[in-house]
Amino acid sequence: MATPPVAVDLSSPADRDVAVRIGLAWREMRRGASTVALRDYMFGNADDALDAGQMDSLDVLAFRPLWRMSELAEALRVDPSTATRAVQRLVKDGLAERRADLDDGRVVMVSITDKGRMQHQDIDRRRGRVIRRLMGAFTPQERADFAELLSRFVKQLDVVVDDMPTTTD
After folding, report:
1. Is the pLDDT score of 48 beyond 60?
2. Does 44 share its domain with 56?
3. Are residues 21 and 67 in the same domain?
4. Which of 32, 70, 96, 108 is the most buried (most CB within 10 A)?
5. Which of 147, 83, 70, 155 is nearest to 163 (CA)?
6. What is the largest distance, in Å, between two alpha-carbon atoms of the chain?
7. Structural domain of 35
8. How many folded domains does the chain comprise?
9. How far apart are CA 117 and CA 94, in angstroms?
10. What is the pTM for the complete model shown?
11. Helix 80-92 and helix 69-76: axis angle, to 10°?
């Protein structure tokens, strides 16, 4: 059951304080020094390290054997050209492969390679270690509550983005 929207008054000190804390936490998750160390731990810190878009693509590719590029872009919730760029690097690194659809040669199909699956599994193990450590700081009920709240936050973010004007005026 969806919770009805509640008016938020940012002129209220309490609402403003919470909004600022959320904004700061969001920024730190995206840009904090620990984020760089975490990214390097999970995805590598060498020239062949994956970026977030490539990892997202590898995650999706690992879910099923073959994807149309258009389906992959939709699953990643990105523009097809963005998905194509991420896949190009994965192909270059031997982590994915592209081929024409057997039924329609105009359609590009993408799949994860054995090398890509092995790298994905290695990263997934490291990611699991991090998540277990993070979850260990919370009680079972707090973990369940946090998962629910974070899911709602992400869904609401989609609603807000969908409702945004197309220009910045």
Report:
1. yes
2. no
3. no
4. 96
5. 155
6. 61
7. 13-48
8. 2
9. 11
10. 0.77
11. 110
With a CB cutoff of 8 Å and minimum separation 6, the contacts of 80 are 69, 70, 73
Identify whether the C-beta of residue 29 lies closer than 8 Å to the C-beta of residue 21.
no
Cβ contacts of 161 within 8 Å, gap of 6 or more: none
Tokens of 4: 């009805």
> Mean pLDDT over residues 127-148, rounded?
94
Has residue 94 been placed in a domain? yes
Are 110 and 72 contacting, i.e. CB atoms less than 8 angstroms apart?
A: yes
Neighbours of 44 (CB within 10 A): 14
* CB-CB contact of 91 with 97 (8 Å): yes
Using the structure block, give the residue that is written with the tokens 């998540």: 131
Q: Please work out, in degrees rounded to the nearest 5, the angle formed at the alpha carbon of residue 165 by the alpha carbons of 160 and 169.
A: 130
pLDDT of residue 30: 79
Q: What is the mean pLDDT of the chain?
A: 88
Q: Is the dihedral of CA 160, 166, 167, 169 positive or negative?
A: negative
Give yes or no: residues 57 and 106 share one domain: yes
Query: What pLDDT shows up at residue 106?
Result: 83
* DSSP state letters, 6-40: ----TTSHHHHHHHHHHHHHHHHHHH-HHHHHHHH
